[in-house]
Amino acid sequence: MSEFEPKIVGFFCNWCTFTAADLAGTSRLSYPHNIKIIRMMCSGMVDPKYVIKAFLNGADGVLIGGCWPGDCHYINGNLKARRRVAMLTEILKEYGIDEKRFWLRWIAASEGTMLREVVNDMTAKLKELGPSPLNREALGEKSEKAKMIG
Amino acid sequence: MSERIGFYICHCGINIAYRVRVAEVAAYASTFPGVVVARDYLFMCSDPGQELIEKDIKSFDLTRVVVASCSPRMHEKTFRAACGRAGLNPYHAFHMVCVREHGSWVTENEDEATEKARVIVRAGLKRVSFQDALIPSQFSVNSNTLIVGGGIAGMQAAIDIASAGFKAYLVEKAPTVGGHMLQYDKAFPTLDCTACIGTPKMVAVGQDKNIELRSYAEVEHVSGFVGNFQVTINNKARYIKTNCTGCGDCAKVCPVEFPNEWDVNTKMRKAIYLSFPQAVPVRYVIDKKSTAPCRISCPAGTNVQGYVQMVKTGNYQQALNIIMERLPLPGVLGRVCPHPCEADCRRAQVDSAVSIRDLKRFAADRGRLEDVPMPVVEEIDKKIAVIGSGPVGLTVAYYLRRKGFKISIFESMEKPGGMLRTGIPDYRLPPSILDQEINHILSKGVELKTGVALGRDFTLAGLKEQGFDAVFLGIGAHVPVKMNIEHEDAEGVVDAVLFLKKENLERAGSAKKRVVIIGGGNVAMDAARVAVRSGAQSVSVVYRRTEKEMPADHEEIEGAKEEGIEFITLTGPKKVVTENGKVVGIECIKNELGPADAGGRRRPVPVEGSEYVIACDMIIPAIGQSVETAPVIKDAPFELTAWGTFKVDPDTMQTSVPGVFAAGDAVTGPATVVEAVAGGHKVVTAIERYLKGQMDLFEAERKEEAPVSVEPDYVPIPENAGAVARARASFMAPQSRTSTFDEVDLGLSEAAAQGDAAKCLNCGGCCECKLCVDTCKAKAIDHDIKDEREIVDVGSIIIATGFDPLDPTPMSQYGYGKYTNVFTNLEFERLSNATGPTLGKLLKRDLNDRLKFTEPPKSVAILHCIGSRDINYHEYCSRTCCMYALKYAHLIKDKCGHHTEVYNFYIDMRCFGKGYEEFYKKVQSEGVRMIRGKVGSIKEGPNGMLTVVAEDTLSGRMLAIDVEMAILCTAMEARTNAPDVMRKFGIGIGADGFFQEEHPKLAPVSTPSSGVFLAGACQGPKDIPDTVAQAKGAAAECMALSAKGIVEVPPMISWIDPDVCVGCQVCIGLCPYTAIEFDDFNRISVVNSAVCKGCGSCAGHCPSGAAKVRHFKDQQIFAEIDGLLLN
Q1: Least C-beta-crowded within 10 Å: which of B691, B706, B839, B898?
Q2: ipTM of the complex model
Q3: pLDDT at A150
Q4: Residue B163 and residue B172: Cα distance in Å, rounded?
Q5: Which residues of chain B have pLDDT under 50?
């Protein structure tokens, strides 16, 4: 059986982390293909239901990327994201989503190398952790939870 | 209507196609519901690529378009425009997905890259059908431009904008415009003098009517958006008005010197200075920092730094004048002040505190009281009665007199002075000094009546009848506190206050043979030392704690010991032992130290059974004094504190009886002279306000918020400050002291005083001696000017904040800062510059004095790439060093003679600009030695000779070359405050620390923040021609905005669905721009679209889902998530 390839959804803010991903590209810093990026204007606009939706759709991990505290293009959207993530993590745990699957990272526009490290790290950790209980594709019909929710 | 989607994937030459099988992705897209055409093309962004889309839209009747290519940050605009040209609303029709930066360039495996592209494309195709038509809003553009930084980039941009007829605000942090370019000597490769080409630009920005120059100013805050920014500028106080003529008379008299930043510390400047002779504006500036700690810790607020500087320069009269601004008794305080200022002196961090009190005495001894100027004021017809002529009474009398009030002092004793006369022994404070200073106060028109006591000879009511408008009570604390032990009324027990009074006034010689003093304060020390002088054969001080806890001054304790006085500590009195009613001894008990009390001092605990008797003939208790309030309170209903002192309002110092004020020991209990003076100053303010009907000012001050305490900004302690021993006053020999009341402390010698004053670090910058004010003929100096904030409206902003030169001190292998003749490039530029420390001569430093320059070097090593192209510092090339290194080589040969050996140690020569390579050839032909190899280390020999060690990588040999001077060509690096600037203006910083341009090739002066542009070295290292070109580019961008007059703002902003909003108002608190208002009538929140920036803070939180960001709506994001995860 081929190795488990986790599916990661990245919600990246336009000004810092999305730009860092662009920089990683122009610097040809290769990283695992597992992450797919959705462009947001600010980490603070990532509605919790987007994260829940991603997990319900079978994502094995969700990464929110924003500017460093103090550097937000919109003054303090990233701090709102931080509060929201803290709360959402607790809720997700209640539904069996391990907190190790849901990351928030500050990655500035100049930190292409950091972006690569984070994606490397997250992919490796999720491989260790195995598929999300809601990833029906990888688990087949084995997952009780998937059945219950699905 | 069903959607008709066109899909296009770009090869990007091979950039995408080399990893992603583009045809396969296009084929996959063509199977997607709604896709009617799917193509792959070599360059989608090219004209034919765009035409392809436009043609397809028309021929296939497309409703939506998805392009998979580079990052949308790159070409989203391009394709939106193409859709727009073909008649579609671009926001409705177009979506772009990134398969290059996020795909082909970061994925090594072709299958994986193709699969990733397929998934991303699927998400884009799903999303696009949910997009809505949006119309960007248009705003007018303010035609003013803000330029931050007055270097050559900022100046050039300002000149260009002004010449186009628009207004430019040029904000420069330093007192002068010019920037680094004007610090240089010559500019490569043409060797034109930078002053000759730079100063005309400076003059132009100073004179052009369209340029508003704000030098010595900083941008504090920026709000608004492209075309409509509001900028808050803080114009820092220069303390010099615009009528300054730049004559420089002020600098000649200024006593304070600091290293001149403009000359990179190779030369000194005064605290009032002009950076360099051609500075623009030609207006001096005073360097003020936080108020010096000595001045803060003086209870009376004396300008300590000011008079210390005056002593340093030998202007003793001005020193005295400064002291007399706050202290009416300079000679007294110069002798008896416990000098809290010295405890806070920062010089102690180097060696020891400046001997401030001794310097005050020195100034008082040398200056003439008669020459201290009185302010010119009109006489005020208000009479004030000052009761008591102690230090507080004299303070109140003198300073109210200086304001023009009529003062009468009432003193109960025969001579004025209060505790100064009765309490302080003559060997510490000679009566002649006291008399002289009191007489000076009286000579200013203060009336004195002695031998009259309040409550005995006159009453408050009587004073009122006599026409006094206000009364001050400064009656001191003269009543001894009892010990409360057995037989303390026996003959031979005399309280210290009474004993001192008797000895001071009558010289009674009343001490018995064996004297015991009880107490450890200054009064106890005075009593002990007076006892020695009044006939006692042995004197012992009994104190209940240890010597460490004694409240007496250290000098007094030491003085007492020198005079043979015995200290019996950890001992308390138990009872007086008498025979026939006379003292024969005192029974004491041993103490040990218990736990600390509330004040932090350890409480003495008696040891049971340790009682013993000290035989003596006289006991002098010195354990405190209280206020004699009885005669006063029978006169009027004064409220007292639990301590028996007068109760006063802590701000107004007014007692419970209106119009009667009190301060000094009568309020505080026994305290120091300087604390009494401090209380006196508060009373002076209060009485003046009382008599002028301005007491409400206190109320206003009380309401003012306490200033936020910020870390004080003092002048840094110079690294080269060497330890200097503290000046010692000379003292009378201990053996000759005991027989006389002559003054023990003989004061400092002139040399010692000036030497100690020179130790002062001038923590506060300017010392406020105000000599400059008197000397300025234009009357342009005002030390009370405050920072001024202004708000200006601009439509565009240019950031031209330049660079910092790297500090090579941490590179210990080059010995910069340690070896005398290792220079940085900027220091060398200043040496070579005609306005620098050597007036343009290239000279070596004196081995013993870094500020002295001696003779031309016979050999010089120039080290390239210091901190550039160095993985430990900056990986980038600083682009200018090779060329200026060549320039230095030429200048050395030119100025020091052809025989001077010049060695250039380089890694690679980068002479890329116009005329640069030719210059390289020319310099080589002048006999400069070029050595390819980076210098490993420099070592200094005993004679200052430097040995430079490097590998010549062309010959493979190790070289060790002796030179007399070495120049480090340091890297250009981003300004240390670049992150602050970044935040203020909403721009970005690259990995190298410099500001990030929007696109490295096609938008080199733009930033992601619309309307904010970059110019010069703040964007990356560059030379003068490139800087000027970029400045002109940035100016052109601003002029384009201003000329068009209209700007489009992206429509991706928030919107609250009025049918869904429940009016919870959570979004209002979250919005960082206060763009949401509550509609009271409809009970819903409404977005102000002119203010909203579309951050989505509201949408991310809205519990009812009513708030959404256009173009980032739930259905759109959900579709993208579905596309990424579901087949």
Answers
A1: B706
A2: 0.96
A3: 45
A4: 20
A5: none
